[in-house]
Design goal:
Rossmann fold; alpha/beta; 5 strands; 14% strand; 182 residues; 6 helices
């Protein structure tokens, strides 16, 4: 089961971001959309990240949206700073959401790296494709959620990188872990 997160405000509604959504949500990929109404949350001055005071509400609502689909466990969530903007060493935001998911009987692992994307952070080898392959080999997920792409807006080669990630996920779900080249 593959999930794709869409957001309805600010930079996330530009033509390029909407093209990423179309690629992920339409055949052959057919991801399940998890839509987040960002306008309901108080944002930091950058208008991109939720204020700390709003994070718990966001986390609970996000988990409820996921739980409605009853994804098979484990669930691998690959994201950028959308979840873990505070990027603390203890990964408190990630752990909080993982614990909320566990209360819903969903075992999850969140891999969140600020500034990352399908191409963004490639120079540090923190792009989604590398992290996807690592997550598959470590967790053998039954479900995968992609919550990324916003840091890729305006970067070259994003569309092929996104297609590569989606193809890798399809190969994994169709042919198993052995189909994933290291």
């Amino acid at each position: 089961m593959l999930f794709w997160v869409t957001v309805n405000t600010h930079v996330w509604i530009c033509d390029e971001a909407m093209m990423f959504d179309k690629i992920a949500l339409n055949p052959p990929n057919r991801s399940i959309e998890i839509s987040i109404d960002w306008s309901q949350y108080k944002l930091k001055s950058d208008k991109l990240h939720i204020r700390e005071s709003e994070f718990e509400r966001f986390a609970r609502e996000f988990v409820e949206k996921i739980a409605r689909h009853n994804p098979p466990s484990p669930l691998l969530i690959l994201t950028d700073s959308t979840i873990d903007y505070y990027n603390d060493e203890q990964n408190c935001a990630n752990k909080f959401i993982e614990e909320l998911l566990l209360e819903k009987n969903i075992v999850a692992h969140i891999d969140a790296i600020c500034g990352s994307g399908f191409v963004a952070e490639s120079q540090n080898n923190n792009h989604i494709h590398r992290r996807l392959k690592r997550g598959i080999s470590h967790y053998a997920p039954e479900s995968i959620m992609l919550m990324a792409g916003w840091n890729d807006i305006g970067l070259a080669h994003t569309q092929p990188a996104l297609v590569k990630v989606l193809s890798t996920i399809e190969d994994y779900f169709t042919n198993g872990i052995r189909s994933i080249k290291k």
